[in-house]
Amino acid sequence: MAKTKTTFFCQNCGSQYAKWLGQCSSCNEWNTIVEEVIQKEEKRSWKQNNAPKKAAKALKIDNIVLNEEDRIHTQNNELNRVLGGGIVRGSLILLGGEPGIGKSTLSLQVALAIEKNVLYVSGEESQSQIKMRAERLKNNNSNCHILTETKTQNIFKNLEEVQPDLVVIDSIQTLHTDSIEASPGSISQIRETTAELIKFAKETSTPILLIGHINKEGHIAGPKILEHMVDVVLQFEGDRNHTYRILRAQKNRFGSTAELGIYEMQSTGLREVDNPSEILISQKDESLSGTAISATLEGMRPLMIEVQALVSTAVYGTPQRSATGYDLKRLNMLLAVLEKRAGFRLGAKDVFLNITGGIKVDDPAIDLAVVSAILSSNEDDAIPQIFCFAAEIGLAGEIRPINRVEQRILEAEKLGFEKIFISKYNKLSKPFNGIEIVLISRIEELYDNLFA
Ligand code: TYD
Ligand code: MG
Fold it and tell me: Which of 22, 26, 125, 282 is the 20 to 30 A CA-CA neighbour of 392?
């Protein structure tokens, strides 16, 4: 019998070593190198008796024909938008997210709603469990095939039989291939099985939606190279205690990564949220101190988001600062700016910040609302609910202009806001009649405008 061949892989970055090391020399992580068995066979193709392929030929770019048929429109508009208009044939889409966030639900919903032949492969749930889930989701696609299998060779056998237009695999970490001996979920298994799936997808032009688990740092578990191998990397995120879920593209070879899909988890599955602003602003009758509404943009869509702050006297020596849905470093920076440029003594106060709805915001235009919410809580003076904010704040306390301000103003106007605070340096090309625009240039002016 041949001697078992093993190699050492870093479980963090996927680097390969001939012997064990305490620290990976490529990503500098400690204790991540693990021995894996990699007995390789001769053939590694997805088809056992693969005929040699014709060599590819170079074509002039003008002679390459594109047809609309290259994209499959799912019935899910939010997903279509994030993907840049639908699923591209022959592409590999990796969908990552925390356990319980709804990856399997979303994938099954897509599989059931699409009017195509689909093969849904699960390594995690039995056929009857999936059927039970499908009954809750109500959609019914009689051409959706369910398979519980983890061995890629068996999956390919089923693929040849079913000849689907779309394949869903739940999840890549449960798959294993016969061609190497490492256990499922290990770096080398993930790499090999993905390579086999890519080969299948490209040769047959069948798109594959691949579900991936994430590790405790929030990255997709497996070698970093996995994200390079696939065409699209989607991240499904949200707070488990809230019902809203956000789908983002981290990488997309066929579209923009700025787009965003918003869903709400209901008892009958994920509902697409067409008008996100309405749900992100809590409906209440009276104004409360410490809340301010920001006109942000997520992708191409304007989104009104409520920011809540609580400022209170610190009980212990070191004041606490905490932020949910917002960068803590940025919060500290804004507090320092308030202290230095506007003379607000927040140094001995605890400051808590929360973006409602459990979503994360990267748009710098939210800064002004964050500062307004903090000031409002500190003064214990409510900001009228008909006010909203959209500007970035610089280190010198200056109110900076932001992109696509008119789109934000329009959204605010549409939702019935009566006043919007923006930077003096934002140039507007047309007047707005339905909403008052307050132009400010320095952080001190904000205070006078709100509470003086
Ligand atoms: P799931 O898709 O299994 O998550 P993942 O595959 O990302 O681990 O989603 C599981 C959660 O979703 C579960 O906690 C219950 C909830 N859920 C609903 O609220 N409504 C539904 O219709 C379904 C199917 C799930
Ligand atoms: Mg799942």
Answer: 282
